[in-house]
């Protein structure tokens, strides 16, 4: 089913866009408006592949739909190139928050890697402060437009680089000033979380929350390392945990599955999976199961009791929104409003917030789904 990311699909007569949502896996450098890319590039004299916003949007979508995470990641060379100044970072962060609010998101976490934004003289601290300024401007603009939203930063280190301990210390330094958690991202295969054990040891000593990209471009060993070496409280994507499940039989509508030790641990400990359906198709993360959304193991994981959440990953590259992802899943698996509410409750419970703040989110979601 083709759904415009700006459309307002209905489910059981209810606008999906109007429902309160929680966004946990959303990259800042994957969320730019095409028009903003062009304007920021012009301001610094940088060439981009297309000068028309619609055509540039088409270019990102086409280049991202390769079935390879490595090729998918190359599109970020364009977006990060226009995010090298304080003004550029501030604007992108402000628009990020405004776009989330317009999509019905009431709490979001934005992940980005400060080390990738230093080419024009910014320090790591300058970059984080610029993004935080933009977030706060976006929250104020959203409030003025009648939307209540809060957004926290997930300070991210690049897993193929060697700055993770430095970035971990940066994240902790900004605790209470916008940073709510830490992540590692980038090329997953060949760069396990164990390469960054010193950073994760430090974060654990500071009781600072961690999510780790794992189970996307690499399989069970990557997930295992994220949990053991990274002490991950959530799994970024984590879709390939389904490789540790074996469907042994099916009787009518019932499916009987055996669990491997890793899958059982993730399920029983309710470790949240930050699943991103459209992105998982684009990068080939679900290639073992098929090439259509209906092949995604999302529903299997949901029915087996895993803590599944729904995310966009990169709204520009996937030409998507959280509303669109939910609508696509509802169409593929015949979900109703109760299912969509369950995904939001899972995400609220997994947010890197205090218990009191998570309970407030859960209450807001319940109110929004029963109005």
TrEMBL record:
SUPFAM superfamilies assigned: Metallo-dependent hydrolases
Presence of the UniProt keyword Metal-binding in the record: yes
Task: Give any Gene Ontology cellular component.
Answer: cytosol
Q: What is its EC number?
A: 3.5.4.4
Sorted alphabetically, which keywords does the UniProt record give? Hydrolase, Metal-binding, Nucleotide metabolism, Zinc
Per the record, a Pfam family? A_deaminase
For molecular function, the Gene Ontology terms on record are: adenosine deaminase activity; metal ion binding
Protein family per UniProt: Belongs to the metallo-dependent hydrolases superfamily. Adenosine and AMP deaminases family.
List the protein's name: adenosine deaminase
Naturally occurring in which organism (per UniProt): Microbacterium telephonicum
